Amino acid sequence: MATRIEEAASYALVQLTTKGPPNRPRDGLQTGTARKIEVEATALERELRAGVEGDVVFDESARALYASNASNYRMAPIGAVLPRNTGDVLYTLAASRRYGAPVIACVGGTGMPGQTVNVAVVLDFSRYMNRLIELNAEEKYARVQPGLVLDDLRRTAKQHRLTFGPDPATRSRCTLGGTIGNNSCGTHPVIAGMTADNIDEPEIATYDGVRMTAGATTESERQQIISADGRRGEIYARLKSLLDANSDRIRSGGRAKAILF
Ligand SMILES: Cc1cc2nc3c(=O)[nH]c(=O)nc-3n(C[C@H](O)[C@H](O)[C@H](O)COP(=O)(O)OP(=O)(O)OC[C@H]3O[C@@H](n4cnc5c(N)ncnc54)[C@H](O)[C@@H]3O)c2cc1C
Description:
Layout: E1 2-10, E2 13-20, E3 33-40, H1 41-51, E4 55-57, H2 60-65, E5 79-82, H3 86-99, E6 103-106, E7 121-124, E8 132-136, E9 141-144, H4 150-158, H5 176-182, H6 189-192, E10 203-205, E11 211-213, H7 219-227, H8 231-251
Parallel strand pairs: 5-7, 6-7
Antiparallel strand pairs: 1-2, 2-3, 4-5, 8-9, 10-11
The protein binds flavin-adenine dinucleotide (FAD).
Flavin-adenine dinucleotide (FAD) is lined by residues 69-70, 104-112, 115-116, 125, 146, 168-170, 174-175, 177-179, 181-182, 184-186.
């Protein structure tokens, strides 16, 4: 959902113009459907403070800090939450949803097309959720939190003569969360693949309240997930139809042409 600030009558109430996906996907020129929403920022901040263990920063200097990243874009967010744990993340998503506030994740802020800059509640994983939880050298996998800096993982892995292949130039600053979000590759994708090729089981929390682990499935496991009721099955079903509709085009080097959600 793309958002742009329309007018901030007072900080207590932020008005946004949001753009949903085009409702006529076959019309390549249609850019989306616009709608205005209002977010009661002060009330949302109060609610977040009541339930988040980490930091909730809605003051002007914090908003100024999150208003830019490595891109050319500038937009003051509604505020930022620096979660201490998964509970904080889920709480922030649920509270923001109740108030109609968009949420974006930000970590190193080195992404260049401006994805971490918007009129939204920023979830910044870099301060607290930045740990390497487990490195299993024998089975060659690591479990990480999204704010872990890429070089911190690579340094520890090196002690076991291992590495994480994708190596963006920003690897001393950028994080695993941002690297997954961007599907970064660095200079060695021919050897190591892109980030998506090196991720086994992402743990996902969606804005609308679904929490799930994704990853490789057999065809029958995938069918079981799709047949089960609920949003998870719906997401898998839409992914499958996206794949079915585009696999020839993707294999021949083209781009997928569809809208997923
Ligand atoms: C000088 C320079 C050189 C660069 N060189 C390369 C390069 O060689 N190769 C390359 O591939 N890229 C490169 N980049 C781009 C960028 O550094 C990488 O893509 C980097 O991996 C982004 O990581 P980050 O932590 O800064 O992410 P951010 O910019 O903070 O976030 C990136 C995206 O991930 C999303 N995201 C972050 N965490 C989560 C989460 N927990 N859940 C959901 N979404 C999340 C964000 O919302 C955003 O959309 C370069 C950028 C610069 C400025």
